Amino acid sequence: MIRLVAAEWLKLRTLKSFWICAGTALVFTPAAATLSGLLAAGVLQTVIIVLAAVVPGSEYATGTIRTTFLAAPRRIAVMTAKALVAAVVAAVLGAVCLMLAYVVVTLVDVRYGTVVSRSAVDIGHCVLVALFAFAVTLAVKHTASAVSLALSAVLLVRLVLMVVSMMVGADPSTASWNL
């Protein structure tokens, strides 16, 4: 299993899209945090969805998934290694981006710092969103479709929770689900 995880990590870090997504998250999450801590989490989750969809989607797009399954015929082990890499990358990228966002926000305006400082919840959310996007990509086997479906589902859940929260009279900006 360790060799499969190492192989998946090697495949991921040699993709241009991985570095583009990581750079985008590292630049735009702190920049968005200066406007709103909730916007920063939204930007981060969008980049995480794209990144998690790229993990299996890039191999399906190029057809190299067949070679992967020839080299390691246990498909469940291969997909578990891919999911593990996607989850760890999402957690690390989320932690780094949220720490940068917190530093930038506390320098600009202290009141947004409390929203961004819920890092443990946000990192857990990043991992769950990454695994969801990964699963959607496995189901549709197409990166663009998976990103569209996963992003739509995540945003729809957020919208529904916000409407329900408003209907019961809670302030949606302070709700614990508002990531």
From TrEMBL:
Key words of the record: Membrane, Transmembrane, Transmembrane helix
UniProt superkingdom: Bacteria
Positions of transmembrane segments: 43-62, 83-108, 120-140, 147-170
Name this protein carries in UniProt: Uncharacterized protein
Organism, as annotated: Actinoplanes ianthinogenes
